[in-house]
Amino acid sequence: MTSHQSTQTMKPATAAKKLGVYLEATPAEFQEGVVTRAELNALQADPPQWLRDLRRDGPHPRPVVAQKLGVSIAGLARGGVTEALTTEQIEALKQEQPEWLQKERATQAEVRKEAARLKQRDAERATEGS
Question: pTM of the full predicted structure?
């Protein structure tokens, strides 16, 4: 019995998400085709100029914007940011420090602190149980 290796493909939206770029800003040929696992690996290993430019300048998808601002995606929405932002726009927000951004960063810091506390507590319980 021989097994045939099928080529794994993904939609452009999935590939863009894995590459950390905003799909609507990618070239038309990327948006209209399908991407194989090998093509995705090649894009990650040796990104073409358009991908390097998008990663550097944007527009960036919301998860990347949230990460660069140090807030959650929900925090972006609460702050009224629903669109993709360029690196320049993100830097301007960091400089302006609007009230919503300060509040969301503080909230995110509390969430991280609580997650670290729970991880420590679970580690201690695991040690006690052995």
Answer: 0.75
